[in-house]
Amino acid sequence: MASSGTAVSLSNVRKTYRIGEPVHALDGVSLEVPRGSYTAIMGPSGSGKSTLMNLVGCLDTPTEGTVVVGGQDVGTLGDRERTRLRGTEVGFVFQTFNLMPRLNAVENVALPQLFQGVGRAERLERARDLLERVGLGDRTDHMPNELSGGQRQRVALARALVNDPAIVLADEPSGNLDTDTEADILDLFDEFHAGGTTMLVVTHERHVAERADRIVHLLDGRIERIEELNGASGSQPGTPAGQEPGGSDE
Amino acid sequence: MNPLESLRLAWRSIRGHRLRSALTTLGIVIGIAAVIAFVTLGASLQAGVIGDISPDDQRNLYGWAAEPNTEGGPLAGAQPVFTQDDLDAVEDREDIDAAYGYATLQTQAISNGEETVAQGSGLIASGPSYIREERIAEGRQFEMGAREAVLNPAAANQFEENVSVGENLTVTMLGGQRMDVEVVGITDNSEGLSPFEGFESSPRVYVPTNPYYTEQASMLGIGGGGGGGAGNQSLAGGEARFLAIIIEAESADQTDIDAARESATDYLESDAADASELLDDDLEVQLQTSTELLGQLQDVLNLLQNFIVGIAAISLLVGSIGIANIMLVSVTERTREIGIMKAVGAQNRDVLGLFLTESVILGVIGAILGTGLGLVGGYLGAQYIDLPLVYPLEYVALAIIVGMVVGILAGLYPAWRAARTDPIDALRYE
Ligand SMILES: Nc1ncnc2c1ncn2[C@@H]1O[C@H](COP(=O)(O)OP(=O)(O)O)[C@@H](O)[C@H]1O
Ligand SMILES: [Mg+2]
Q1: How far apart are CA A79 and CA B349, in angstroms?
Q2: Boundaries of each MacB-like periplasmic core domain copy (chain B) (predicted)?
Q3: B274 and B303: one domain?
Q4: Cβ–Cβ gap B1/A111 under 8 Å
Q5: In this predicted complex, what is the ipTM?
Q6: Which ligand 1 atom sits nearest the alpha carbon of residue A19?
Q7: B208 and B317: one domain?
Q8: Whose C-alpha lies nearest to ligand 1, atom 10?
């Protein structure tokens, strides 16, 4: 099941931090992320990758422009609705895993559904199911400190998927992993992507980015260029809306 | 988020820091324990003392003459002013069933035939109705003017062969004189009959004031003009004066008691009374029921109670500051966890509820431990002074509520801080 419509779209997004000199962390970014797509974001440090992820992840609101996630304009939402949107439409995978240290694997995976008011039995059943699918069916009751880095990241991936989000955001997901476990995690990403999950992955590593359908190159808060890769799906409907390489200043 | 889930998560993190949590609750534990222990003791004391007052005692007014506002309970600062004539006159008045003197006669020993036992607590001299009918297990009340006595079981059983009704005893007074008494009754138990005696159990011998007190008084020269020098009093004059009197109202109803009190006071302060010669500005007649007398004890208890409650309040304040402090530390420590929860969809109120639940649990645990400790303390105290144990259960409920309130107040600010944590900053937090 491939795409139908847009998971996330950004148009002319600007994020400005004012600490003395205004810093444009993002400076007029427009991007469509179609449902079912797999996008990598690359760029040097300070180019605005994390800022972009925070906006798409409904953790932050743009200074200018619009960010639409799961059909809703994030900038117009109040804190409560934005949190609900984040909980249901977005799944995060972090470089440092960010599991709750006092919850075991299955409880960590079930955590997002706790805040959606899903009953305990139902929650845990779904969490076990997902742990099974990421290959941790025999580790459900382990605490995070009893798991290896790769296993923790798999728990985190299962947690990101538990609410059936419109998009999974991964910020340097393999940054803390060795080569073998990195490959395992990326294989899982591929597997879920093949199953229809929309992926947005920030990475420094070319070989990680090459798993995606396309690579968005960021530089100084702007999209420098978008590189289409000839993955399994040859054509991508959602090409950049607006920005061309070296596009005009707006 | 479902409160049960908050409870589960909060409990998890409290258990993650057992020692810290235990120390945090210490202030609450001490505060609550102090209050519960004291309240238990107070309730036991009350039950132990007031519980012994029989309903029939409630119509008795215990009287003496003392300076107004003398503190110290029954007979404090009392002077012997009342004559038998006064009491006879009072007894004849309306609203009064009986009036008689009360005195303790000092003794050395009591002999039953060959056998002699020491009797340090003396003879209790009063009127016949002092020993209520229903308290007599065997025989009858003594009669005024007769050489008769009623014993309580403790007094009757102190001889090798228990004394029974109809036997004669010889009492050796403190001064060495011997007097014969005929046992005419035995009471049903050995507890005291009035606040003049005290309510504790001990061997007691009850006799009529006439002849026992009148003889003794004339010998020792109690009463008369100045109540002073020995031998200035003749038996024939009947002018022995009583330190203590008992006046019985028609019933235990407050109106009847007040009527009796007024009637007796009116007479005793009037010129017709012998007592009035000795009553002046410095000496006035006090007439009080057992309950009223114990009310003074109650006042002292209440004062102490307020003191303890004050200390407990300070302890609770310190305890809640302790909880607030630990909760603040905990919020800072778990900044990253808060960030994670918010990233996966926790609302501000979920985070607020979680931390508030945690501090309420700490408060309630403190209250429960404090209550337990306090009840044990109260129990040991009551055992020590030999009181019946009464657990003030409404205070246990109150203590738990106080623990909750302290938890809420202490947790409010830290929880609010946690709730408004920015998830982006929190996730960056190392
Ligand atoms: N909270 C902030 N306050 C001020 N400046 C910020 C803040 N977050 C990011 N920036 C600035 O925005 C720019 C982009 O940052 P970021 O998105 O973190 O880049 P990247 O993740 O690509 O390294 C940087 O210059 C950074 O200093
Ligand atoms: Mg970054």
Answers
A1: 11
A2: 21-265
A3: no
A4: no
A5: 0.90
A6: 4
A7: no
A8: A25
Tell me the per-residue pLDDT of B368-404, one tens digit each, with 9 for 90 and over: 999 999 999 988 988 887 777 888 788 888 889 999 9
Residues paired with residue A39 on neighbouring β-strands, in sequence order:
A200, A214
- Residues B244, B306: one domain? no
| C-alpha A159: how far from chain center | 12
Place domain A37-62+76-228 in its CATH homologous superfamily: P-loop containing nucleotide triphosphate hydrolases (3.40.50.300)
Residues 6+ apart with CB under 8 A from B337: A100, A101
Cross-strand bridge partners of residue A214: A39, A228
Tokens at B86, concatenated: 């006064």
Maximum separation of any 2 CA atoms in chain A, in Å: 54
Give one DSSP letter per residue of B337-370, joined into a string: HHHHHHHTT--HHHHHHHHHHHHHHHHHHHHHHH
Asked if B158 and B144 touch (Cβ cutoff 8 Å), the reply is: no
Q: CB B350 to CB A115 under 8 A?
A: yes
Higher pLDDT, B56 or B2: B2
Q: Is B336:B429 a contact under the CB 8 Å cutoff?
A: yes
Q: Angle B209-220/B84-92 helices, nearest 10 degrees?
A: 150
Report CA dihedral (B276, B282, B283, B285) to the nearest 10 degrees. Answer: 100
pLDDT of A158-217, one tens digit each?
999 999 999 999 999 998 899 989 999 999 999 999 999 999 999 999 999 999 999 999
Tokens of B60: 């008795």
| Residue B110 and residue B119 in contact, taking contact as beta carbons nearer than 8 Å | yes
Give the start-end residues of each E strand in chain A.
6-19, 21-34, 38-42, 64-69, 72-73, 90-93, 167-171, 199-202, 214-219, 222-228
Question: What span, in angstroms and rounded, lies between the C-alpha atoms of B109 and B173?
Answer: 7
In angstroms, the CA A110 to CA A103 distance is 10
| CB-CB neighbors (< 8 A) of A114 in chain B | 1, 5
3-state secondary structure of A35: coil
**Domain of residue B196, residue span:** 80-282
Report the pLDDT value the prediction gives residue B49, as an integer from 0 to 100: 67
Which residue's C-alpha comes closest to atom 13 of ligand 1?
A25
Taking CA–CA distances from A58, the nearest residue in chain B reads: B343
Residue B63 lies inside a defined structural domain of this protein = no
Tell me whether residue B289 is in a domain: no
Kindly identify which residue of chain B lies nearest to residue A98, measuring between CA atoms.
B340
* Residue closest to A103 by CA, chosen among B158, B337, B83, B93: B337
